[in-house]
UniProtKB/TrEMBL annotation:
<dbReference type="InterPro" id="IPR015943">
    <property type="entry name" value="WD40/YVTN_repeat-like_dom_sf"/>
</dbReference>
<dbReference type="GO" id="GO:0005737">
    <property type="term" value="C:cytoplasm"/>
</dbReference>
<protein>
    <submittedName>
        <fullName>TCPR2 protein</fullName>
    </submittedName>
</protein>
<dbReference type="InterPro" id="IPR036322">
    <property type="entry name" value="WD40_repeat_dom_sf"/>
</dbReference>
<dbReference type="GO" id="GO:0032527">
    <property type="term" value="P:protein exit from endoplasmic reticulum"/>
</dbReference>
Length: 212
């Protein structure tokens, strides 16, 4: 006889003050004091990544209880999306309001792992706000989508320090979600959901009716 599962009880937890207290509420830019807004979030078993309105990524290591900061060089602009990945190396991808995408290969204290912080840039294809990012499980592929419907595929060679990017799909409405598994990219836009088969470059729509 099948056992009856007990209902799931939702529990409210207190704010993560140890994390929030490590992020400034304001920064000084010349004579101006600028309020810092938290704009993007992703978590895994090792890190909590928080993007901000000043272009700074705050990365909290859960094992060491340490906060580190990463940013784009040059113009400060809001980070709109962050995506963590733990594979052989720890990776974090972030996108901004103007369409910049960068990947940071994090330093690890474990033997045989990466010992020097490295950054890869997805150059010049996106021209508008990044709304979605998706990793392949091995960290060799990154997909990025923006609010104009463009989806870019970036191939990362971590050993050679190379990132090659190309436009693979363009939809008529904003990308709202991406997920990748086994050579298939799941894409959701404001109008429809589809499967993009990366080897065949084929598109299969999920369902028949457009979203309203």
């Amino acid at each position: 006889m099948a056992s009856v599962t007990s209902p799931v009880a939702f529990q409210e937890f207190c704010p993560l003050y140890y994390l929030l207290n490590a992020i400034p509420t304001k920064v000084q830019k010349g004579f101006r004091s600028i309020v810092v807004y938290l704009t993007a979030l992703d978590t895994n078993g090792d890190y909590i990544a928080v993007g901000s309105s000043i272009g700074m990524l705050y990365l909290y290591c859960r094992h060491l209880n340490q906060m580190k900061k990463y940013n784009f060089e040059g113009k400060c602009e809001s980070i709109t999306f962050v995506k963590l990945l733990s594979c052989f190396d720890d990776l974090v991808a972030l996108g901004t309001a103007s369409g910049r995408v960068a990947v940071f290969q994090l330093v690890s204290s474990l033997p045989g792992r990466n010992k020097q912080l490295r950054r890869f840039d997805v150059a010049g294809i996106h021209k508008s706000s990044i709304t979605a990012l998706a990793w392949s499980p091995n960290g060799m592929k990154l997909f990025s989508g923006d609010d104009k419907g463009k989806i870019v595929y970036s191939a990362l060679d971590l050993d050679q320090g190379v990132c090659n990017s190309s436009l693979v799909l363009e939809e008529p409405s904003s990308i709202v979600q991406l997920d990748y598994s086994h050579k298939v990219l799941l894409v959701s836009t404001l109008q429809r959901t589809l499967l993009f088969y990366t080897e065949e470059k084929a598109v299969k729509q999920v369902g028949t009716q457009p979203r309203k």
